[in-house]
Design goal:
Layout (H helix, E strand, L loop, with lengths): L1 E6 L4 H13 L4 E6 L2 H8 L6 E4 L1 H10 L2 E5 L14 H9 L3 E5 L16 H17 L1
Parallel strand pairs: 1-2, 1-4, 2-3, 4-5
């Protein structure tokens, strides 16, 4: 299974996702793309991705071949994450044939109703869903 993890800003969520996905799906081919070099560097520190890249074009290219895209909800919204998600990035994620597992977060002028800020249960639910996808694929 080809999993794409996208994160921006400090890359902390991406790093946590990479570590957890690698434990859950050890055989997965995982690509990590940071929207900036700091996010990529932090995800690199996890040591769990098969490939790493940075920036808009990397997101666009990786979305073409991903089977599953994982990241914060903001990766589907142009100009989110303090402007790090360009319209082209958001379009690439939204129009990809990949299955998307989005982590809801109440940040950057976006409120997702029913979501508790920083809930570990949300991340656990996402990882359980990725595990189920890996078993089906």
């Amino acid at each position: 299974m080809n999993i794409l993890v996208i994160d921006g800003q400090g890359g902390r969520l991406g790093r946590k996702l990479l570590e957890s996905i690698r434990k859950t799906c050890p055989e997965a081919d995982i690509t990590a793309v940071g929207t900036n070099s700091i996010a990529t560097q932090n995800m690199l520190g996890a040591g769990c991705a098969n490939q790493l890249a940075t920036g808009e074009n990397a997101v666009i290219v990786a979305c073409r071949t991903a089977q599953v895209i994982v990241g914060p909800f903001g990766i589907t919204a142009a100009d989110s994450m303090m402007g790090e998600i360009t319209p082209a990035m958001a379009n690439a994620v939204a129009s990809s044939a990949a299955y998307r597992v989005l982590i809801p977060m109440n940040l950057c002028n976006t409120y997702v109703a029913g979501v508790a800020k920083g809930s570990a249960a949300i991340l656990e639910d996402a990882l359980n869903h990725i595990r189920e996808l890996a078993e089906r694929l």
